[in-house]
Design goal:
The complex is a heterodimer of chains A (about 575) and B (about 150).
Chain A (H helix, E strand, L loop, with lengths): L1 H31 L3 H12 E6 L6 E2 L5 E14 L6 H12 L3 H9 L7 E8 L1 H19 L12 E10 L7 H4 L1 E2 L5 E2 L1 H5 L1 H5 L3 E6 L16 E4 L3 H18 L3 E7 L6 E6 L11 H4 L8 H4 L9 H11 L7 E4 L2 E4 L2 E4 L7 E4 H6 L3 H11 L1 H10 L28 H8 L8 H12 L10 E6 L2 E4 L11 H15 L14 E10 L5 E14 L6 E8 L11 H15 L5 H10 L1
Parallel strand pairs in A: 2-9
Antiparallel strand pairs in A: 1-8, 2-3, 3-4, 3-5, 6-7, 9-16, 10-11, 10-20, 12-15, 13-14, 16-17, 18-19, 19-20
Helix pairs in contact in A: 3-4, 9-19, 12-14, 12-15, 12-18, 14-16
Chain B lengths: L1 H9 L1 H64 L2 H10 L26 H4 L1 H6 L10 H14 L1
Classes of the chains: A alpha+beta (about 575), B mainly alpha (about 150).
């Protein structure tokens, strides 16, 4: 009996042992079989997949939290080739709804390689259009379910993939500042290009495990950084309106207006013409002849003319070459280096002090002062004002302008005189604003900038303003501020604003021709000004290119400055001087 | 002890029973651990799947949020607001129409703080401090609370 049981036990144990051994043998066999690699691939594929995660592009806001650039869902439409039944139907539908090229679509579907399984046909299709195509696809599927045969209309194989794309709710407002993003998600011009890396974030290749237990292994890919700009949307739009109206009123070819806070370099508005509607980038080639036209305030240096005189005067006052009370007898001409410098009206203005010199914008006066200073001091000061160097503003493609200095092959002694009143030297409006900020800001020059702060990982980081040096003393700045205010506030000036004491200077510059001479029929009309005098809160630069109603800045750029100053005081809530000073006294 | 060993040796079936008992106890122990492991693994898997679903939902909501923000921005864009205000016969106040009043304590408008206004920030505050504070923090808080009382 016991033996019988022992036999049974042995048999059962042997069977299990054999099964175990067979399993082990099979496992080893599979491991070393030629198909092992395929099995391993299969396992790897089913374990998870690699995915490239493109972070959502960071948004752009103005200083008041208005969205200037955001993201919106769009669709990529393509075909899974083996499912396509009727390529003509697909091409026809996309042509009708999306205005796509029929031949191009058909070509994409028909001309494929053997390895291809999917072809992208169109991208950036709006949600509405994608839904309409999907509706037609479903309707055709239902219709075809009851029919048989070849040649039936069908959108089978059409595949929709949604993703986020850039959107610009304000269309053309501030487009010169913002720039745009192309279809490969790369920023062009302005903020979009300058901060492309921050906005775009870092696309990451991520291993997504199919095993839910390993979900924690999937890394978090942060979205692109959101930026807050210093611009004020209302002021930007109002400035653009004034600029557009001015071009029409004065018959100018193009123009730019910039408003900056001279205390900290924050750009409050920056209008430039022409402007691109950022929701329709196809017009780019029609609107712009060259990339430098995208933002004239930053990308296009020009000979600014008499607005430059404030820098010459600042240098002379700082050096002690002149004081506000220094007088001289204006004879109407000044000879230097074999050339004769004349005043804008070719007249002699007799005995003048330095305020009169600025008020009447006398070229002869400034040329004499520059010669008195000498080349080393004059060009040394211009260098300290940043003329000839980019300001470092956070916009792409900033131009540095050109300041020829002694030692350059194309510098002549007469250049010292002409440079003193802003001819023979090129600078961008933003360079001149940065230089002039030292006068408005008690000697300290500020770096113009557009980035107020950025939001990343749920934290907002605000950037402090950056000083760009101290080219002149506090005393010089205060004295010159007063001189410029006195020279502006004269009878007949079109750059004044009732109840506000402002500072300003016109600039009418002849435009150099391709033959090396100057055209006196076409000018660049400019104006730089700021206010209120005792507490400057805004600095405005106006540049009108080739105005035809009048060539003089005092009749074109000056009234535009007054208009912009008025709207600026309203939008920034700057009360008239009397009320402001009363309020300050009561504090 | 000697007495006990003698009893065991006299009845071999006791030894076998003892061995079977030990094996059974081991099997029960292993089964319990396996069951516990299975239970925990199953729960972890479910939670993992739930996290995957929530992440997918978060991604969808983020996309929807981006769309809504853009839509809202379009509705509140400068051009739209200008059209609406014009339709309501509003116009921008001119300098002559603007009257300034001294308002005690008025502070000029500061640039936006997006985090201060954001919903994500308020979501962070939904979690009670109990779940985030360290023992030291908790102790400090209790001590402060005690002092106040």
């Amino acid at each position: 009996m016991r033996r019988e049981y022992a036999w049974r036990s042995t048999t059962i144990v042997s069977i299990f042992a054999l099964i175990g051994i067979a399993i082990i043998v099979q496992m080893v066999r599979i491991q070393i079989s030629p198909e092992a690699a395929d099995f391993r691939d299969l396992v790897q594929r089913n374990k998870g997949w690699v995915e490239t995660v493109f972070p959502a592009r960071g948004e752009i806001y103005d200083r008041n939290g208005n969205l200037i650039a955001g993201n919106q869902t769009v669709f990529e439409i393509g075909v899974t080739l083996e499912q396509v039944e009727n390529p003509q139907s697909i091409a026809e539908t996309l042509t009708t709804i999306l205005d796509a090229d029929y031949v191009n679509i058909l070509d994409k579907i028909n001309n494929v390689t053997e390895e291809q399984i999917y072809v992208m046909l169109v991208d950036y299709v709006s949600v509405e259009d994608a839904q309409e195509i999907e509706r037609i696809k479903l309707a055709l599927e239902e219709e075809n379910a009851e029919k048989t045969g070849e040649g039936l209309r069908s959108l089978a194989g059409l595949h929709f993939r949604e993703h986020l794309a850039r959107s610009y709710p304000e269309k053309s407002i501030a487009s010169n500042i913002i720039g745009f993003v192309n279809q490969s998600e790369r920023g062009f011009f302005g903020i979009e290009e300058k901060y492309n890396d921050l906005l775009a974030g870092n696309p990451v290749q991520v291993w997504i495990p199919a095993d839910p237990n390993r979900v924690e292994e999937v890394p978090h890919v942060p979205d692109g950084t959101t930026l807050i700009l210093t611009i004020d949307r209302e002021l930007q739009a109002a400035t653009e309106n004034i600029l557009d109206r001015s071009l029409y009123d004065y018959g100018a070819e193009a123009g730019t207006i910039v408003i900056m806070n001279p205390r900290n370099g924050e750009i409050l508005a920056m209008a430039s013409t022409p402007r691109l509607n950022l929701t329709d980038l196809s017009d780019y080639n029609l609107i712009f002849d060259s990339a430098s036209e995208f933002n004239r305030a930053v990308n296009m240096p020009y000979e600014p003319g008499s607005v430059f005189k404030i820098l010459t005067m600042a240098a002379a006052l700082d050096l002690g070459v002149v004081t506000p009370n220094t007088t001289y007898n204006d004879t109407g001409f000044y000879e230097i280096g074999g050339a004769t410098i004349r005043n804008w009206d070719n007249n002699a203005w007799g005995l003048q002090d330095m305020t009169g010199c600025l008020r009447h914008s006398l070229n002869v006066c400034l040329a004499r002062i520059a010669v008195q200073m000498g080349t080393d001091d004059f060009y040394g000061y211009m260098n300290r004002f940043g003329i000839g160097h980019p300001t470092g503003i956070d916009l792409s493609g900033e131009a540095g302008g050109r300041l020829r200095v002694p030692g350059d092959s194309d510098w002549y002694s007469v250049d010292l005189a002409t440079n003193s009143f802003g001819q023979g030297v090129t600078a961008t409006p933003i360079q001149l604003m940065m230089a002039a900020s030292s006068i408005a800001n008690e000697g300290t020059m500020v770096t113009p900038h557009l980035l107020y702060g950025m939001v990343r990982d749920n934290k907002q980081y605000n950037f402090p303003p950056q000083d760009a040096g101290r080219p002149i003393s506090r005393e010089t700045a205060i004295v010159l501020n007063e001189m410029l205010a006195n020279s502006l506030n004269v009878e007949g000036s079109q750059a004044t604003l009732p109840d506000y004491r402002l500072v300003g200077k016109t600039g009418t510059a002849e435009i150099p021709t391709e033959y090396g001479s100057y055209s006196n029929a076409q000018t660049n009309a400019s104006f730089i000004g700021w206010g209120p005098v005792d507490d400057p809160q805004f600095m405005i630069y106006v540049w009108l290119e080739k105005p035809t109603l009048s060539i003089w800045a005092s009749y074109t750029a000056a009234p535009v400055f007054a208009d912009v100053a008025e709207i600026t005081t309203q939008i920034l809530n700057i009360p008239p001087d009397l009320i402001r000073l009363q309020y300050a006294a009561g504090q | 002890m000697t007495h006990f060993n003698q009893h065991i040796q006299q009845a071999p079936w006791r030894t076998r029973r003892q061995m079977v008992g030990t094996i059974l106890a081991a099997i029960v122990g292993v089964s319990m651990i396996a069951a516990l492991y299975l239970n925990i693994t199953a729960r972890t898997t479910l939670v993992g799947r739930e996290i995957q679903n929530l992440e997918w939902e978060t991604s969808n909501l983020k996309e929807e949020n981006a769309n809504l923000k853009t839509e809202l921005a379009q509705l509140l864009s400068y051009d739209e607001l200008f059209k609406r205000s014009n339709a309501l016969h509003f116009h921008r106040a001119t300098a002559a129409e603007t009257h300034y009043l001294v308002v005690p304590g008025y502070e000029s408008k500061e640039p936006v703080n997006l985090i201060h206004n954001s919903a994500t920030n308020s979501q962070n505050n939904i979690l009670s401090e109990v779940y985030t504070q360290s023992l030291f923090d908790w102790f400090g808080q209790r001590m402060q609370g005690g002092t106040r009382r």
